[in-house]
Amino acid sequence: MRAGIKPESVVAAAAAIADRDGWDRITLASVAENLGIKTPSLYNHVEGLADLRQKLASYALANLKDQLHDAAIGYSSKQAFIEVGHAYVQFVREHPGLYEAINRVVSPKPEAFEQASDSILNLFIRLMQPLGILEEEAVHAVRGLRSMVHGFASLESMGGFQMKEDLKESLSKAITYYMDGINCSRIRQ
To answer: By the 8 A CB rule, do 118 and 66 touch?
Structure first.
């Protein structure tokens, strides 16, 4: 084994390949080549391609979690959701392969993946508390918001927005409309 190769190096090499070439281009051979080692040496760090992809998904979600938490700092109410939404879309722009890893993780999901997922959900639930949304309802609201932001990021990555209007403004307005809708539905109840 080449000196300096650590499990984190293997995952980082896979992440670089995923973002540069796409999820489907991650192979043990491509990761080994990226690290300058022979493929069998990877088995000192991963059990195989499926294990590497699970580790990559955990790494990716932990990075997304950190970006979302950082984006929320210092903001509340709608603006917190706008900032977090922008951070989410920015992550997808900068890390398309990592984002795909998050969405292609298979069950059973690694514990690290589940922990990062729970942390993201808890962030959104905390951000919704000042709005008076109960935790049971917050899960539904978070799913809707995530679906909207995921859709926005996906459409953007496929070149789906060709009009001249500013994308950042469009996303901000979409999140604002969504949050206003949540507030209106709460008032009517």
So the answer is: no
CB-side neighbour CA atoms (13 Å) of 16: 12
Q: SS3 sequence, 169-186?
A: HHHHHHHHHHHHHHHHHH
For residue range 24-80, list pLDDT tens digits in order.
999 999 999 999 999 999 999 999 999 999 999 999 999 999 999 999 999 988 999
pLDDT for position 163: 93
Q: What angle do CA 69, 70, 72 make, to 5 degrees?
A: 65
CATH number attached to the domain at 56-188: 1.10.357.10
- Cα separation, 173 vs 6, in Å, equals 44
Q: Is 132 left (phi over 0), alpha (psi -120 to 50) or beta?
A: left
Q: What is the pLDDT of residue 56?
A: 97
Q: Report yes or no: 119 and 70 within 8 Å, Cβ to Cβ.
A: no
What is the structure's pLDDT at 188? 52
Closest residue by Cα to residue 51 from 92, 101, 86, 85 = 101
Say what the pTM is: 0.91
Neighbours of 131 (CB within 10 A): 17
Phi-psi sector, 110: left (phi>0), alpha (psi -120 to 50), beta: beta
Non-local CB neighbours of 157 within 8 Å, separated by 6+ positions: 92, 93, 96
